[in-house]
Give the backbone structure.
Amino acid sequence: MTDMKPFADKLALVTGASRGIGAAIAEALAANGAHVVLVARTAQAMEEVEERIHQAGGSATIAPVDLSDMEQIDKLAAAIGGRWEALDLIVLNAAMLGSLSPVEHLDPKELERVFRLNLLANQKLLSAFDPLLRRAARAEVVALTSSVGHQPRAFWGGYGASKAALEALIASYAAETAHTGRIRVHTIDPGATRTRMRALAFPGEAAEDVKPPEQVADWLVARLRGDAPTGERVRVEE
């Protein structure tokens, strides 16, 4: 590790890495020396992110995976474990918004899909990659959440409930691994950020009124380089 490339020789995995915050985080980690495994469903979009990383002098590998398929997560972990000895950093970013609707009108099938991606897939990722995280000299686990997981809001019940459950899950994992002194866990609320999900949720909002994903990525890199404690829930302020 060097001051110029603080994540040199580190392996990072970022979900939802085809666009938005996930892509920005992947590019920032690669710019700081990490080899980044890009995970998302859409290979073509990830290839564009990979190309930007390579053009900037970084390195990355794409892994097209449907995270709602738990067997694919197991196969991903097996493939990564067969190539690398340890995983230094995992960013749990992939998420689904679902419909913004009164609680009594939420569609059960859609709500199940929201929880499957936003909660169950992240538990499966932690389960599948925990052995590789424990092999790292120091591992970082980052989970992206939302203000509505902490402060309920009308019509956001489905998405908010999935994020509240994720926060509880991640906090438990932080408490369970704190004794090792080698796994540091961060729950990050990015705040209002210029993403596709934000545009769907707030269609009348001007994009220039909210911060770009790159600002969140730079903030996260700075946090990972610092001495923040494990288990904190932190919001990225403007």
In short: The CA atoms of residues 211 and 238 lie 7 Å apart. Residues 108-134 form the longest helix (27 residues). The radius of gyration is 17 Å.
